[in-house]
């Protein structure tokens, strides 16, 4: 059974919790398009203090598929609340809704909200911080399209600042994955995270590992991280995934990306049997439906 | 009358009543003073010894702080534990050590150190105190943004 009241960070979830959510998501799959009215008369508040169209739309869709409704506060409207603390906003909104999805520019905002809220808080992303529902849908995609146990996976891109990769690595370690971290010099995953991984390899060149993995998880390398634009172009080019890079990979390799992508994956790759990023985005629906149903006791 | 044993190893004047913070990791005496809010305008009689030979501490050196007429409160002891995990706190009454406690690292410290991440909610105008999980004596993790402090903890003391 799932006993947690809020979903703020992957660190709060045990392996059992994660498996419970993924199993629940699997049972939600048939309803991800057809819908199932288990949260009728329930209201989900979408508090987005920073734009994130994808996350907001998918929570909105998930709640409506469950027969519930949503209240939303967009980032423009949120300026109306300027001057009011987030703490006060939470105390007000908890009277209007049955759960809150919070997206906020300050890291740790969702944790603070969970300390004061009487209704469940789901972290929809806090600044450069956590985004646990992204990690859960990543795990669900891996489980469905590949396998979670004894997985060989490579995480590629900016692993220093990209917290998506941090929280995914943390979660995969619970399932004993063999993790290759492929990052340009200076953008490798922080040591304090690497030290917690049981089976890990650090490399700079994707060619070294790509033939030995089941999953290639691509993340974005941001221009802002490079003081020198020509250096950025050089790195971005060498980390771009093209058909050439995919020669002689494992038959059932899958390629994932949290989206939006810029040019880290060439469009030709979309046509290969390896591409899974759009499916991954769709899986956000059953996973979020599962979480909403679990947190608001709408059992199926 | 000063007991002989103490007299032999006393490098500073002996005190009648107060506290002796012994076995401070060498180099941290001034941080202990900061934690105790002892500044140039403090009236209390304080003596500080630095880099005293010690068999027990790393590199064979320790610092000692002695304060007259003051006993520490738990919050101060918690802070000292962070920067000097081997410290012993002796309470002196009538020239004698009447109580000796080693410091204990708390699991969670609230409003003790500031989060280095400026974008952390604990550094905002929200009504919330900083909170860190103590992973070990040299590593703290912010309960809000999960930023790790693994060097120079003293620099972040509130
Ligand atoms: N009256 C006093 N005035 C000032 N300092 C004192 C006084 N009595 C003891 N101290 C100091 O307090 C510390 C603890 O004293 P104690 O006599 O317990 O020493 P110890 O046997 O070496 O103890 P430990 O095992 O903790 O090192 C020593 O640093 C000692 O110099
Ligand atoms: Mg001694
Ligand atoms: Zn923080």
Number of domains as seen in the coordinates of chain A: 2
- CA-based gyration radius of chain B: 17 Å
Instruction: Please bin the fraction of helical residues of chain B.
Output: 10-25%
Structural class label of chain A: alpha/beta
What is the number of independent domains of chain B? 2
Instruction: Label the overall shape of chain B.
Output: elongated
- Total DSSP helices of chain B: 3
Unreliable residue runs of chain B: none
Rounded mean pLDDT score of chain B: 90
Reported for the largest beta sheet of chain B, the result is: 5 strands, antiparallel
Strand order of the largest sheet of chain B: 2-3-1-4-5
Name the quaternary structure: heterodimer
Strand content of chain A: 5-15%
Class computed from helices, strands and strand pairing of chain B: alpha+beta
Intertermini distance of chain B: 40 Å
Work out the largest interface and the residue count of each chain. A-B, 21 and 19 residues
The CATH homologous superfamily of the largest domain in chain B: Aspartate carbamoyltransferase regulatory subunit, N-terminal domain
């Amino acid at each position: 059974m799932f006993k947690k009241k809020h979903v703020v960070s992957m660190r709060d979830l045990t392996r059992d919790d994660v498996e419970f959510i993924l199993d629940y998501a699997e049972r939600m799959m048939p309803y991800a398009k057809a819908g199932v009215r288990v949260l009728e008369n329930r209201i989900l508040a979408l508090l987005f203090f920073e734009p994130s169209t994808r996350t907001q739309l998918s929570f909105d869709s998930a709640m409506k598929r469950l027969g519930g409704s949503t209240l939303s506060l967009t980032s423009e409207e949120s300026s109306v609340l300027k001057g009011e603390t987030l703490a006060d906003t939470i105390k007000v909104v908890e009277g209007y809704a049955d759960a809150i999805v919070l997206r906020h520019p300050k890291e740790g905002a969702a944790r603070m909200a969970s300390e004061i809220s009487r209704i469940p808080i789901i972290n929809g992303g806090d600044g450069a911080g956590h985004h646990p529902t992204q990690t859960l849908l990543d795990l669900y995609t891996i489980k469905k399209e590949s396998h979670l146990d004894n997985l060989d996976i490579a995480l590629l891109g900016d692993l220093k600042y990209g917290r998506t990769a941090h929280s995914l690595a943390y979660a995969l370690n619970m399932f004993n994955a063999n993790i290759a971290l492929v990052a340009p010099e200076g953008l490798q995953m922080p040591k304090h995270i690497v030290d917690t991984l049981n089976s890990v390899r650090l490399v700079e060149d994707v060619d070294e590992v790509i033939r030995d993995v089941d999953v290639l998880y691509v993340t974005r390398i941001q221009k802002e991280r490079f003081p020198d634009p020509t250096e950025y172009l050089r790195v971005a080019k060498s980390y771009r995934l093209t058909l050439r890079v995919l020669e002689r990979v494992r038959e059932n390799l899958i390629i994932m990306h949290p989206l939006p992508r810029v040019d880290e994956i060439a469009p030709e790759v979309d046509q290969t049997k390896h591409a899974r990023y759009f499916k991954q985005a769709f899986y956000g629906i059953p996973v979020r439906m599962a979480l909403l149903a679990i947190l608001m006791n709408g059992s199926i | 009358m000063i007991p002989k044993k103490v007299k032999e190893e006393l490098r500073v004047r002996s005190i009648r009543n107060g506290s002796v913070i012994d076995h401070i990791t060498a180099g941290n005496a001034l941080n202990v003073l900061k934690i105790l809010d002892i500044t140039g305008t403090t009236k209390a009689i304080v003596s500080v010894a630095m880099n005293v030979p010690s068999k027990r501490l790393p590199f064979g050196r320790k610092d000692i702080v002695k304060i007259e007429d003051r006993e520490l409160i738990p919050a101060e002891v918690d802070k000292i534990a962070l920067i000097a995990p081997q410290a012993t706190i002796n309470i002196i009454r009538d020239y004698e050590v009447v109580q000796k406690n080693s410091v204990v690292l708390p699991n969670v410290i609230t409003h003790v150190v500031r989060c280095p991440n400026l974008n952390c909610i604990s550094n905002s105008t929200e009504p919330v105190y900083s909170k860190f999980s103590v992973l070990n004596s040299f590593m703290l993790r912010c309960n809000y943004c999960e930023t790790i402090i693994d060097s120079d903890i003293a620099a972040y003391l509130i």
